[in-house]
Amino acid sequence: MGPRALVREEGVDRLPRVDRRDWDLRYAGSELIWTAEPNRFLVEEVGGLPPGRALDLAAGEGRNAIWLAEQGWKVTAVDFSDVGLAKAARLGEARGVVVDFELADLRSYLPPEGIFDLVLVFYLHLALAELEKILRKAALAVVPGGTILVVGHDLLNLSEGHGGPPDPELLYTPEGIAAHLPDLVVERAERVRRPVPTDQGQAEAIDTLVRARRPA
After folding, report:
1. What DSSP line would sit under the chain, residue for residue?
2. Which partner from 30, 68, 71, 147 sits 20 to 30 angstroms from 88, CA to CA?
3. Does 100 score more than 50 pLDDT?
4. In this predicted model, what pLDDT tens digit does every residue of 46-73 receive, in sequence order?
5. Poorest-confidence range of 17-21, 107-111, 117-121?
């Protein structure tokens, strides 16, 4: 893997050199790294959509996938850490929902085209060439009339926000993400802010949020 490998995090500083083993070790503890609750932007953007088939790319410990399943979605959740997916499966079982968990590296994973009503890509930070390929594959997985939602640490977060990768080449901009969603109608592309608790009190993180729809 190159010097700018996979980084996926929400609200925590990470060096860009991590791989599957790093995430396996990080997920190895009994406690969840974040919480069992879904990402706030997922709830805000997806809560009003009718349930269908959903694909969660870089699913981690599964909190977003499990919340979707609780709302009636049929969910496929993909991640490259079997340790993280095992925790996700236990969480899903405890909450009484079924999710199809798949172990795969997104850089080589090829989702089926045109079958998902919703595709999520949350806090997946890669070198631009790798991220672009994944976003294009993710966009092709969306059914006509379906939605893709991409959220990640914004470039502005480096100077004005808290947490996230310290490498600017791994950070998002709304226009940059929107440009890599071919043939989709971009419904929202902007910077959003969320509170982050720290030892020094509450801080604020700045994210990119892009929601796009494949024309029916």
Report:
1. --SS--B--SSS---S---HHHHHHHHTSSS-SS-SSPPHHHHHHHTTSPP-EEEEES-TT-HHHHHHHHTT-EEEEEES-HHHHHHHHHHHHHHT---EEEE--TTT--PPTT-EEEEEEES-B--HHHHHHHHHHHHHTEEEEEEEEEEEEBTTHHHHS-SS-S-GGG-B-HHHHHTTSTT-EEEEEEEEEEEEEETTEEEEEEEEEEEEE---
2. 147
3. yes
4. 999 999 999 999 999 899 999 999 999 9
5. 17-21
> For tokens 């953007």, what's the residue?
45
CATH says 1-26+72-216 is which class? Answer: alpha beta
The C-alpha atoms of residue 136 and residue 111 are separated, in whole angstroms, by 11
Rg value, the chain, Cα: 16
Please report, for the chain, the start and end positions of each structural domain, with discontinuous segments joined by +. 1-26+72-216
